[in-house]
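Hey, I'm writing a tutorial for new members on how sequence and structure tokens pair up, and I'd like a real worked example in the thread rather than a made-up one. If someone can provide the structure for the chain below, I'll link this post from the tutorial.
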Amino acid sequence: MTQAVEPRPESERIELLLKRDGPEAACAWVERTLAIYRSALADPKHYANDFSYKPRFERAVREFEGWLCGQKRRG
């Protein structure tokens, strides 16, 4: 039996963007990606609502929201 591989946390992707592109670009990417993920979850026909993907999308949304909230507190 093959086990599903857990995706990397979004924090790793954000960290890469921070180092490579800087905080403004990373923030813009998080905001865009968060909007895309929210839209996907709002569409019942989107694969993001499949039982195997939905928890991953929801976890990513929480990570993005938490990161943005932390940025605003620092900003």
